[in-house]
Write a structure and sequence with these properties.
With about 375 residues, the chain is of the alpha/beta class. The chain has two domains: about 130 residues, no CATH class; about 240 residues, Metallo-dependent phosphatases (Purple Acid Phosphatase, chain A, domain 2, 4-Layer Sandwich), CATH 3.60.21.10. The protein has a six-stranded mixed beta sheet with strand order 1-12-2-3-4-5, covered by helices on one side. Strand 2, helix 5 and strand 3 form a beta-alpha-beta unit. The longest helix is centred in the first third of the chain and has 40 residues. The protein is globular, with a radius of gyration of 24 Å. It starts with a helix and ends with a strand. It holds the Pfam family Metallophos.
C-alpha cells in the first residue's frame, strides 16, 4: 500500500508538471494538430514512465527491468531540463512583457513566444544529448596535489586513486565498470580509495557486474566505505561481496600502512546516515581514529562531505568523499549546498583538507552537464606552510 500511494502521488505531481510544460510550450509552438498530439503523448508517457522506473528493479525479467529503467531515466533527464528551461522562459517572458507594457521596448509578442518555445525545447534536447555523452564516456583522470604538514619524506609522492559513486545498476553494467578498472590500473596507485555508492541493487542481481573490482591493482590494495545507496541495496551482503572480491571494507576503523619505512593511517567510516539502517553502523570518525599513532599522517574515507566537521575534530589530515556528483547536471549543483558543506573539489576546514569527487559514474538519468565524472589521482606532497 505505501508503494502504491507513493506511485499515485508521484505520478500525479509529475503529471501536473508535464502539463505545465506542455501548456506553456505547445500552444505557442505549432498549429499542427498531429504534432501537438504527438508531443502531448510524449509528455504523458514521460510522466507515467518515470515513477514506474523506480519500481522496475522488482521485475523478474532482467531485460524488461533494465529496458524500462533506461527509458524512464532518460525521460527523467529530458524532463528535468525541459522543466528548468520552461520556468526560465516564463520568467523572462514576464519581464519582457512588463517592459513592453511600460513602453520601454516594443516587441512582436507572438513571434517571441513561438521562437522562445522552439529555443526552450532545443536547449533541453541539446543539454540532454550532450549530458548523455558525458555520462556514458569513460571518466577523465584528475590530478590533485595534497600538501600535508609533517609528511615523512618516504610518503612524498604517495599516490591515491579515488573512484566514487559509480552506481552499478540498471544502466551501468560490467563493461562500464571494467573500463574504469582498466584506467585505474594504468595509474600505478599506491592505494585505491572507493568512497561509496558503488551499487544500486541487490547482490543477487549485480554480483556479476561488479566482478571487475577483483582486478584492481595497487601497492597497498583497495579500500571501500559504504555510501547511502549500499544501505538501500543490502549493505551487509555487499560488504561480504566486496571483501570476497579482495576489496578491504573499513567500518569505523583504520589500518596502518607501512610505506618504505614510514607509517600512514588510513581510516574509513560508514555512511553518515548508516545508523538509521543498522544500530551498529553509526558513522563515527572518532572511533575510526581510536588507537592510531598521532604522529602519522591520517586519511579518512567518508562518503558524505558533511562528515568533515567530526573528521576535523578527530584530528584527520585529509578526508576523501563523494556523494554529491558535483550536482551531476545544471542547475542542481546550486542545490547541493543545501545539504552538504562542499559540492566538489578541494576545501580546507581548520587543519583538515577535504576533497570531494564529482563521482566516476552517475545516478538516475544517464546525464552529466557542467559536472564531469572523474577518476581522481591524489598525490601527497610535503606542505610549505
Amino acid at each position: 500500500m505505501p508503494r502504491l500511494r507513493f506511485l499515485i502521488i508521484t505520478t500525479t505531481l509529475l503529471g501536473v508538471l508535464h502539463y505545465y510544460i506542455g501548456s506553456r510550450l505547445l500552444h505557442d509552438l505549432s498549429s499542427s494538430n498531429t504534432l501537438t498530439v504527438a508531443a502531448w503523448c510524449f509528455l504523458g508517457a514521460s510522466a507515467i514512465l518515470q515513477p514506474l522506473g523506480f519500481f522496475a528493479r522488482g521485475l523478474p525479467n532482467a531485460r524488461l527491468r533494465d529496458g524500462l529503467s533506461w527509458v524512464a531515466m532518460t525521460a527523467m533527464g529530458v524532463f528535468s531540463s525541459l522543466l528548468v528551461f520552461t520556468v526560465l522562459r516564463d520568467l523572462i517572458l514576464v519581464m519582457i512583457a512588463a517592459l513592453h507594457g511600460l513602453a520601454v521596448i516594443s516587441i512582436d509578442v507572438g513571434a517571441l513566444q513561438k521562437n522562445s518555445a522552439i529555443l526552450t525545447i532545443a536547449l533541453a534536447l541539446s543539454v540532454s544529448l550532450i549530458g548523455f555523452f558525458n555520462a556514458r564516456r569513460l571518466a577523465q583522470v584528475i590530478n590533485i596535489e595534497v600538501p600535508l604538514r609533517n609528511l615523512p619524506a618516504q610518503l612524498h609522492g604517495f599516490r591515491i586513486v579515488q573512484i566514487s559513486d559509480i552506481h552499478v545498476g540498471p544502466t551501468i553494467k560490467q563493461g562500464y565498470l571494467a573500463r574504469i578498472v582498466d584506467r585505474v590500473n594504468t595509474l600505478e596507485a599506491d592505494l585505491i580509495a572507493i568512497t561509496g555508492d558503488m551499487v544500486d541493487g541487490r547482490v543477487s542481481d549485480l554480483a556479476h557486474h561488479t566482478l571487475p573490482l577483483s582486478r584492481l591493482q595497487a601497492r597497498h590494495g583497495s579500500y571501500f566505505v559504504t555510501g547511502n545507496h549500499e544501505y538501500y541495496s543490502g549493505a551487509l551482503e555487499w560488504i561480504s561481496e566486496l571483501q570476497r572480491l579482495g576489496v578491504h571494507v573499513l567500518l569505523n576503523e583504520h589500518v596502518q600502512l607501512s610505506h618504505d619505512g614510514a607509517l600512514l593511517v588510513l581510516a574509513g567510516v560508514t555512511d553518515y546516515h548508516a545508523g538509521s539502517f543498522y544500530d551498529h553502523h553509526h558513522s563515527d570518525p572518532h572511533a575510526a581514529m581510536a588507537g592510531a599513532p598521532q604522529a602519522a599522517p591520517s586519511i579518512l574515507l567518508a562518503h558524505q562531505p558533511r562528515s568533515a566537521q567530526a573528521a576535523s575534530a578527530a584530528g584527520f589530515d585529509l578526508q576523501l568523499s563523494g556523494h554529491t556528483h558535483g550536482g551531476q547536471f545544471w542547475p542542481w549543483n546550486y542545490f547541493v549546498p543545501l545539504q552538504q558543506p562542499y559540492t566538489a573539489g578541494m576545501h580546507r576546514l581548520e587543519n583538515l583538507w577535504v576533497y570531494v569527487s564529482r563521482g566516476t559514474g552517475y545516478w538516475g538519468p544517464p546525464k552529466r552537464f557542467g559536472a564531469p565524472s572523474e577518476i581522481t589521482c591524489l598525490t601527497l606532497v610535503a606542505a610549505n606552510f
